[in-house]
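Box S2. Input/output pair 1.
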Amino acid sequence: MTTTFKMRTAALACAAAALAMAGCGKQGQVVQGRVITYDPQARQLTLIREPAGPAGSSPGILPPITISTPEDPDEMGPAPAAGGLMLLDSKNRRIVIYDRAAQSFRSVAYTPLEERYNVTKSPGRPALDRVRKTITIYSAKDRSLITFAASDDLLAMPADTWRAGDVVRYYYKDPARALRLMNVTKTDLSKSAG
């Protein structure tokens, strides 16, 4: 190969790289939040963005964001579970839920009737007992199971109000469409560590 040919090849490679980068447009961004609704048929989910700062200090950032899931199923992890439980503060005896009807957070002070800690696995769906007027919820983060007295308006809310939705992280260039989506709750990140 001649020096001229090598220079032309290098120049063409640089030009191709520059065109490819220009075609990519702006850099993408990443958002993480808790899923409050998920419709697999419509390929849409709605989430509450997580705030910056220490985890558990805030229920999230309103308003909720609705996005389309990735078109390529290989760019999406396990399907997320939705729920309205945003924060369980057992120290201050307070639960924060996303109230769909009011489209805002609702803080509920509670008096525990029963508390169990170091519960490693969820017993399943939240238990709403309309006869005894109690709700039992599980917090994976705190590994706690709490039963508290509930008013009729709390018992009238959908059962998934009392379940924490999965945390997802997604990459996008268009804020309404995820290019990649990872279910943080259902992904064991320790297996990917080198």
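Box S3. Input/output pair 2.
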Amino acid sequence: MGLFDKFSKTFDKFGYDMDGYDKDGYDKKGYNKNGFNKKGYNEDEFDNKGYNKNGFNKNGYDKKGYNKKGYDSNGFSFNGIHIDTKINFDKDGFNKKGYNEDGFNKNGFNKKGYNEDGYNKNGFNKKGYNEDGFNKNGFNKNGYDENGYDLDGYDENGYDLDGYDRLGYDLDGYDENGYDLDGYDENGYDLDGYDRLGYDHLGYNRDGYNEDGYNKFGKNKIEVKDD
């Protein structure tokens, strides 16, 4: 009640206004318009927040949620002990060893160290593979890494990153120098420049004669001998 109200209202000989409140705003029972006395409690002896002088609400719990015996509405004390000591789980749902009723701890792992999806803290399952199917060395159950290569560096078709197989030949059958298993390049010539019949690209063999028996000067072996 404001100062203006005190002097503008009309009070009877007992000091109460027309609404039954004195100049301090309290009725004959000592309560204001909101139903609270000078100490801040209502007729049921609770303050405006719902707590009595002992700090408990109408349900018998304090501001932290515990009753006079120190237990919350679920029967757990502040340190997680249940009023019924036969109950093995605390207020957070964990037993003395730190596991919930499903067998997982606060970090989500069971006694063997695996979560509900079957993976340990490092992300691997019992068989040693992660969610992507790779082990700690980076290989899947078939022995290939995420790029498709095995421990030796070959893919499932037997070729390495450069496209060569374990013998050193590419898909077309040539080594890094361009020669096949028999030693011939894609044009059919060996390292010395001769084809499978023994002739170079000009048609001469290692002795310098063509398939007709003549050298580049047009002479055969007999003519060269006579010379």
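Caption for Box S3: Residues 1-43 form one domain. The mean pLDDT is 91.
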